[in-house]
Write a structure and sequence with these properties.
globular, two-stranded antiparallel sheet, mainly alpha, about 500 residues, disordered N terminus, single chain
Length: about 500
Amino acid sequence: MLTHRHSPHWLRHSARWPGILVLVVLALFSPPLLAAGAGELDLTYSLSGFTAVMLFLVAYGLVMAEEQLHMRKSKPVLVAAGLIWMLIGWIYVQEGLPDAVEHAFSATLLEYTELLLFLLVAMTYVNAMEERRVFDKLRAWMVETGFSYRTLFWITGVLAFWISTVANNLTTAMLMCAVVLKVAEGDKRFINLCCVNIVVASNAGGAFSPFGDITTLMVWQAKLVEFQEFFELLGPSLVNYLLPALVMSAFIRNRKPGSLEEAVWLKRGARRIVFLFLLTVVIAVLCHTVLNLPPALGMMMGLGFLQFFGYYLRRSLPRSLARKRTRYSQRGDWRKLESLGSVVPFDVFTRIARSEWDTLLFFYGVVMSVGGLGFMGYLALLSESLYAGWDPTWANIVLGVVSAVVDNIPVMFAVISMEPDMSMGNWLLITLTAGVGGSLLSVGSAAGVALMGQARGIYTFGGHMRWAPVIALGYVGSVLMHLWLNAESFNVFH
């Protein structure tokens, strides 16, 4: 995470290669320094430290080129994380401090594991609801209702905003995009505009909920912001979505698409799975706020509920099919009767297997890589340069813009690892800016990248970029709304 601006001052003068070469040679032979009172080696100005930074930058360069290389983003960061920690381990063993590096690695791994279990259960429930056709039913209702283009623009945006508070923004964006592609088939201009709106809405909706995005979940689990305090960002998040949407909606020709019919039936147990998911979320919140236990405990308990319900669905399937065959035969509903032949028993582990493993493994690689760089001393150096040199408010606003280019996960994890002395208002600000800053570019968030693949050739980087000034207006508006609406929180420190 050592950026060009915050690197050691002599690294900024790229034209002075002879001086840099001398310093690198000196770094080869300079022994690691012991950080005062920390029992850790300061490796920030050593060759091993520079090597670790380069490994991470190269890996992240490959991540950013995912669309061009057609290579999953988890691959390079997994390798980088392994090499960085092996490099640290080698140095600490040579210095006779093997226990220190083992403890540091275990602590970083524990942070990731808690988040992994939480996300895995949430993804499993979302996949289960998808398999039970909950989202298909919602999409079919929107297709059949016959909304006008402008109404469809607002409905998909509003639903993306609210659904992303409990489901991840990636799933939400893809669901809404499927609706738009189905209804407005062939109207590329409208589809591109709707996709931009959906990306902005899903990122904004996830910014004020602990469950809406990985970054908000990280802040909540680190106990930097309490569950109810996230809702102070509702107003700024609405501004972030509504300002661009109001401008973009003025460019829509208000006509109706052709009528479509799509019959979709919910599978057995769909509503009960939605209820179990909401119950699981409540238990996770209570575990964290009342019992002071990790939210992952409540989520894993909820996974047990889903497994028990899956067991019930499998055991009762033959009786259910027999009743439905009799009922549909009496009604003469041959289409539904024929569909019973394709019924597959519900399997929880199939839903787990369909989780976004590339995202989860990418998350591991980022957390462990940034954790390793922090253990070497770079996060302390970055924190001193950024938060000691700047006002925290400006630093958080700039980091939000940076998250449009660099994924918001490493940005947020780096800030949490730095632990700058900030007010509650500033912790909420970095949560907001890291969440919505990715909307500035199509490649700035998982939702944008996914929709470029789903609406390939229609929703593009350039198509999103045309609306960047309008999206930036929403970004500035949300920051100003937070500074005004939650001014008192800037005087509250944890």
